[in-house]
Write a structure and sequence with these properties.
Length: about 450
């Protein structure tokens, strides 16, 4: 049976609970905890959060107006009103960016826009989108379906991607007025929160039905064996860093700008990694050809390949000597042999039972492993592989044609009903659901289709 994914603050398991700070990050010998927030000031306020530097601009600051992106004045071909999100409550939909956006050092091309005033930045969809991996200018129980004037709009010009929640109302608090705010993801990695209309004090917003958050968060996922179900995997989410803004500072015409700081992941060579002067404890993993502190979205690979143990007391010269020895013509061992063996075994993960309803991704970091696996099987002649490929392609086309003919001639058969129920316009995006402890979601129609066709999955 599928169960919800649980999240745990990472520091809870690794070190004694520190005093509360504005930035909660993964523990590390060289990773200092953020200092307490600066005293309240009317002018712009700056805080260092290890991964980002945040700057808060009040209503009287000219910079707050400069940071606001006027979506109404933008090129209409680059602005899209999401018709489903603009007419419903507790839903989310995935959108593809026109550029790669660096979030905590990870390059993303897809994000998930939610009606609840936030963007989910994770690559694996689960039932607790509000828990972590978010960009939240103002996460709350907004209901764009309450008013015809409420819209969820996004804008992408190749340089900046903007999501604007325009004239949206809080569920059950409609008499307090509408909210208009936006989140802008800039190509250079900056994140900007802009607030045009905030009709009430943010600390007054109730979190009983939906979390109320303002800030950033990221996490990594770990697959662990389940003690209850044989041959199953339990997906656990560990939040390794969070930035929480002071909600009392979120007012009309204010703005917050997050400027990214360098991370270990930016280093592409052993020398650059080991000589890094960053506050993170950067280590080089020769097997993965990656620099990391061990606390990022690639942690599953970092653990599987024993990168932490590999880097202990080692220098770049040691790695180079090992590489030259392994490449000697006197031996048939290749430095990538171990990679290929492990990768082939990891492909069986998808066939195992999981205790959540997400799709398993054996490559937690996207192309983190695949980019480092060079093809080495060259024993089969090229012309034979070409012939086999052509034969398989012909057989596949023939099978598709025959299946189409059969389904067309037998519209009430099990095969026909199977494909009818799963034709593209019935494939879903996502929908939130109420839950006593947290906000969950089911799946709904993708962008561009009417609401009458929603397929709503039962909560597990």
């Amino acid at each position: 049976m599928a169960v919800s994914v649980r999240t745990f603050p990472l520091r809870r398991f690794l070190v004694p609970r520190p005093q509360p700070t504005r930035s909660q990050g993964a523990p590390s010998p060289r990773l200092p905890l953020s200092s307490a927030p600066a005293p309240c000031r009317h002018k712009n306020q700056e805080d260092n959060h290890s991964y980002y530097v945040s700057r808060l601009y009040g209503p009287s600051e000219p910079r707050s107006r400069e940071l606001w992106v006027d979506v109404a004045a933008a090129n209409r071909s680059q602005v899209k009103i999401h018709t489903i999100l603009s007419n419903t409550h507790r839903q989310a939909s995935r959108v593809v960016l026109s550029f790669e956006f660096a979030f905590y050092g990870h390059l993303l091309r897809q994000i998930t826009i939610a009606t609840g005033g936030f963007i989910f930045m994770g690559d694996v969809i689960h039932r607790m989108l509000t828990a972590t991996q978010y960009v939240a200018p103002l996460m709350a129980n907004f209901n764009p379906g309450y008013s015809d004037n409420s819209t969820v709009v996004y804008f992408d010009n190749g340089t900046v991607f903007v999501v604007q929640w325009d004239h949206v109302y809080l569920q059950g608090w409609e008499d307090r007025g509408s909210f208009t705010f936006q989140a802008a993801l800039h190509r250079d990695g900056r994140i900007v929160f802009g607030y045009k209309e905030i009709p009430m004090s943010v600390p007054e917003i109730s979190s009983s039905q939906h979390p109320v958050k303002t800030g950033l968060s990221d996490a990594f996922m770990i697959l662990n064996p389940s003690p209850d179900v044989p041959e199953s995997r339990r997906r656990s989410i560990f939040e390794y860093h969070r930035i929480e803004l002071d909600p009392s500072k979120i007012t009309s015409m204010s703005a917050v700008e997050f400027t990214p700081l360098p991370t270990c992941l930016q280093h592409r060579s052993c020398d650059a990694c080991m000589s890094s002067d960053l506050s993170f404890n950067c280590s080089w993993c020769h097997v993965l050809q990656r620099c990391s502190s061990g606390f990022d979205r690639y942690r599953q690979e970092w653990m599987d390949y024993g990168c932490a143990q590999e880097a202990e007391g080692r220098t770049c010269e040691d790695f180079q000597d090992e590489y030259h020895n392994s490449a000697s013509p006197d031996t048939s061992f290749s430095p990538y042999d171990g990679d290929l063996t492990t990768t082939s075994s990891s492909l069986f993960i998808d066939s195992l039972t999981t205790e959540d309803d997400t799709k398993l991704n054996p490559y937690a970091g996207g192309d983190g492993l695949q980019n480092n696996l060079s093809p080495k099987t060259k024993g089969t002649p090229v012309h034979l592989g070409t012939i086999v490929g052509i034969v398989l392609a012909v057989l596949l086309v023939a099978a598709i044609i025959l299946a189409g003919i059969y389904i067309n001639g037998h519209p009430t058969s099990n095969a026909a009903l199977f494909f009818i129920e799963r034709r593209p316009h019935h494939w879903p995006a996502m929908k939130f659901r109420s839950h006593p402890d947290h906000s969950t979601y089911a799946e709904v129609e993708p962008s561009g289709h009417e609401k009458e066709g929603f397929m709503e999955a039962e909560q597990c």
